[in-house]
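RECORD TYPE: inverse folding
INPUT: structure tokens
STRUCTURE:
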């Protein structure tokens, strides 16, 4: 146990093992580790290194700034960024050897112009719309956009390395229709004269349960962090190890009498005389305020309920008659095989999902890394 008052312990050996395990199940030629949003709250660069050590050969992020930060951290593995604003500086991405995910004819032109200014060929991957209705080129525009990209490729401004899309994970029928749409997109790319190295559609859920979606690469996010994307299978059922443990130490202990109100607005009152433990994490640290009177923590390995309003910096736990002292170990969530509540349980308590629970852990919570790969990869 560490003495930290509040911290997120990140087990990089778990990330490495999760990637290796997922790769053995999925078996695609390429594996992208998705490390957007600060590696789902775990820390993008350390997670990227662990994922590469586990066998990932691509990294994916949303914003170009996230990609540039990985390059600045010394990571030179293949890297794709796919969500851009109108003023995104593609030239900086091209100079840093970052693949640009492009979603429109305007972005294809913008990338080709930036490539000219940098004096290099831009490596790009075209995102196509197959049902999710976020970004991505509409089917009606595939011929135009692929034709434009092929023309820039012929003059050395672009290399169109791949075509990709993203699933809605709504129902087997909806996913099937997206898969068919993706196949039509690949045909349209071939018709335009493009020769692709990469075709990718599946994130963790489809990579595991929809083999037809795997193509040449899968993009694994939540699974590499040891969390399940499914309601009907937990981490252990998938052979995954949760990488993040959010923990702290009891900051105060107080005996209260039956009827005592607890925390703002007295939304919980002690039914009997009891003991309360104060935990020094709050919504500023990403603890969801909505989980009041529903979530559990483990103190010295024993589960106790969170009671009353979760405040900005702290919340209370009813420990009943169990002896608890200031400084005792509190785990909000971690690996359930250790007796800790899971991030998914906190998600259920707060009306959200495990993705949100781990990603929202705030910047005030120091990340402490354990199990770093012996030999750093991708740098
Ligand atoms: C976030 C994201 C992923 C990863 O999804 P998981 O469900 O976390 O595996 C893959 N692809 C795209 C485009 C994403 O935005």
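DESIGNED SEQUENCE:
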């Amino acid at each position: 146990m560490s003495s930290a008052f509040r911290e997120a312990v990140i087990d990089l050996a778990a990330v490495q093992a999760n990637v290796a395990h997922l790769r053995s199940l999925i078996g695609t030629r390429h594996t992208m580790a998705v490390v957007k949003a600060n590696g789902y709250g775990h820390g993008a660069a350390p997670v990227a290194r662990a994922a590469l050590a586990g066998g990932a050969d691509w990294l994916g992020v949303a914003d170009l700034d996230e990609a540039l930060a990985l390059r600045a951290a010394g990571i030179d593995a293949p890297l794709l960024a796919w969500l851009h604003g109108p003023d995104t500086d593609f030239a900086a991405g091209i100079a840093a050897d970052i693949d640009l995910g492009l979603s429109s004819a305007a972005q294809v032109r913008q990338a080709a112009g930036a490539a000219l200014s940098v004096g290099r060929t831009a490596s790009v991957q075209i995102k196509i719309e197959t049902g999710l209705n976020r970004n991505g080129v509409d089917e009606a525009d595939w011929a135009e956009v692929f034709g434009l990209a092929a023309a820039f490729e012929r003059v050395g401004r672009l290399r169109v390395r791949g075509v990709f899309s993203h699933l809605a994970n709504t129902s087997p029928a909806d996913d099937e229709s997206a898969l068919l749409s993706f196949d039509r997109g690949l045909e349209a790319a071939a018709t335009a004269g493009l020769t692709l190295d990469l075709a990718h559609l599946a994130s963790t859920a489809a990579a595991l349960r929809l083999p037809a979606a795997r193509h040449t690469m899968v993009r694994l996010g939540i699974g590499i962090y040891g969390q399940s994307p499914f309601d009907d299978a937990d981490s252990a059922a998938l052979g995954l190890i949760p990488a993040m443990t959010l923990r702290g130490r009891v900051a105060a202990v107080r005996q209260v009498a039956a009827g005592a109100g607890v925390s703002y607005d007295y939304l919980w009152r002690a039914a009997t005389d009891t003991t309360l433990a104060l935990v020094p994490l709050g919504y500023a640290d990403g603890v969801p305020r909505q989980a009041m009177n529903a979530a559990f923590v483990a103190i010295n390995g024993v589960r106790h309920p969170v009671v009353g309003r979760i405040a900005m910096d702290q919340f209370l736990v009813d420990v009943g008659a169990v002896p608890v002292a200031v400084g005792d170990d509190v785990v909000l969530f971690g690996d359930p095989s250790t007796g800790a509540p899971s991030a998914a349980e906190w998600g259920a308590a707060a009306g959200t999902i495990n993705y949100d629970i781990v990603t929202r852990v705030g910047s005030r919570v120091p990340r402490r890394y354990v199990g770093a790969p012996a030999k750093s990869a991708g740098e």
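NOTES: The first strand starts at residue 6 and ends at 11.
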